[in-house]
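Per reviewer request, we include the raw input and output of the structure prediction for the construct analysed in the revised manuscript.
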Amino acid sequence: MVSLNLAHPVESQSTADDGSVDNRVHEERDDGINRAFEMHKLLDAFKACRKKSSPGMDRISYEILKQIPRSCQIVLLKFYNEIWSQGLLPSDWKDAIITPLLKPNKSPFDPASYRPVALTSTLCKIMERMVSTRLRWWMETNNLFNKFQSGSRKHRCTTDQILRLADDAHQAIHTRQCTLAVMLDLEKAFDLVLHRGLLYKMEKLGLKGNILQFVADFLTNRTIRVRIGTSVSNPYPLQNGTPQGSVISLLLFLIMINDIDIPENNVQLSLFADDSAAWKSGRSVKTLCKDVQAYLAVAAPAIDKVGPRPYHFRLGPTSGPTTRPQEAKKVN
């Protein structure tokens, strides 16, 4: 565990009695994204935690954290703000324990039949929740999210995207047109995110200072260990990817694919994290195929590159259902 001196506040900041920090200088410089955390943000993070979530190797559960007295909350908040200002996370927070769970109706002798479940430090997850809440707020406030993205965003869900596609398909049927839809799944997308590419994209969005340092250190020198029964493997270093079981991983992935190309020629797009769909309605199936394929030809290289260096996402199997006027009864 990293030992941090909490007795001295960070330079240019004054520490309040509740563990928060005077943010007036920071608010003028970075729109609040890098300001120190206040007590009500810590309490909100506690409330958002799932009670039955398993702890990491430190065996500190959410139930324990929710029961600590106010004096301990103040110390914990000072600890988080010290990490936030220095940009250095405790090394224990970067170690994940992987427990493989057998998928239903799968062979136990095939490694691919298991779903890995990662257990990480709850103390780290609390801070991740505060950071991700602020980062999401900053992205929404500055209208930086891709307008087609619905993953991990308030007041948006998968139903919105399904209704968009269904509405377009029904309108096409009523006007005796066709709708061609292609469903895309980015295979192992979270595991293949290049850290340098992610930080590059964050900088392009205007993120700097504490938030960028936190994410950079959060992704650095991470390890995983596999636990089966009472046996635990040696640590294995992770070079790429956003950590599994992490609170902030999904949001970081959304930033990674945030600049995906906007479709043209009336091609529609929907995004929900690593799942997406592109579709278009019209009278000619041949023209629909041509236009949708043209967009995919543009989008695929954009997904496969980030900043000055490429990373490698693979488009998984796709399906392209086409609704025709004579299939109206099936759709309805």
